[in-house]
Design brief:
257 residues; alpha/beta; 8 helices
Length: 257
């Protein structure tokens, strides 16, 4: 058997902390070729070890063709929990190409004593809750730069928008942009809420520890939190809650025979 035939190719759909850490674990395994795919939405991404490709595949058909062409043995969807389209594309492509698929999904955040959470199903639902100003008028918006259009019609509240890259497109008329990249500290989040006199937080249920301190800071300050529920994982796709479980799955599924 040739060395190429003995090497198993793993494709990780990345862009998250979990994807980068998984790449760090897998890159050193003998007999495994690792490629991480990034969507290209962040201007200066932190690149993981191994091979990296940037850009889309052209839908599920394009991804299935890539899996076949590059002889992928296992596919790991380690994208953001709210990257719904790529997750469903990955499920369809994996079925079409006959490639095993695992989704890495960090556990959802859970409310704790003292939290004042207001769950909604969409960004539009979050905007509707803010419209009358009853929850607050100075909003810390941490839902990312891609969904600001949902809040563009709100001319009453003032928004502090935090994102890695500067947003473009429609946004609320009273907006200040803070460019920053996590992980964030509890002391830092406390100071931010005080400095900007924030009285309501809007966030997606991303889970994980990197951005969780804002929830603790809001709890301490008695600030209500509008939480956008995450979309479901595609049916039939197995999931792993963390990097060690995902790495074990890759070893079991794509280990050289």
């Amino acid at each position: 058997m040739s060395a190429e035939a003995a090497t198993r190719h793993v494709l990780v759909l990345g862009g998250t902390t979990e994807a980068r850490r998984l790449a760090e674990v897998l890159a050193g395994l003998p007999g495994l070729r690792l490629t991480t795919s990034l969507a290209g939405r962040v201007a200066r991404p932190v690149l993981p070890p191994g091979e990296v490709r940037i850009g889309g595949f052209g839908g599920p058909e394009g991804l299935a063709a890539w899996l076949r062409e590059h002889r992928v043995s296992a596919l790991v969807d380690a994208t953001h929990p709210f990257a719904e389209r790529i997750s469903f594309n990955a499920a369809a492509a994996a079925r079409a190409a006959g490639v095993p698929l695992l989704a890495v999904r960090r556990p959802s955040w859970q409310p704790r004593e003292g939290d004042d959470w207001h769950p909604v199903d969409s960004l539009e639902g979050a905007a509707a809750l803010l419209a009358d100003g009853r929850l607050g008028e100075r909003v810390f918006l941490t839902t990312g730069r891609m969904g600001l259009a949902a809040f563009a019609g709100l001319d009453g509240p003032w928004f502090l928008v935090r994102s890695v890259d500067a947003p473009d497109g429609a946004r609320p008329p009273r907006t200040e942009v803070l460019l920053d990249r996590g992980p964030f500290t509890l002391d830092g989040e406390r100071a931010l809420l005080r400095a900007h006199r924030i009285d309501v937080l809007v966030t997606k249920d991303s889970g994980g520890a990197a951005t969780a301190p804002k929830l603790a800071a809001a709890r301490e300050a008695g600030i209500p939190v509008v939480v956008v529920r995450r979309p479901p994982t595609p049916p039939g796709v197995p999931t792993a809650p963390d990097v060690p479980a995902a790495a074990d799955w890759v070893r079991d599924t794509a280990a050289p025979s």
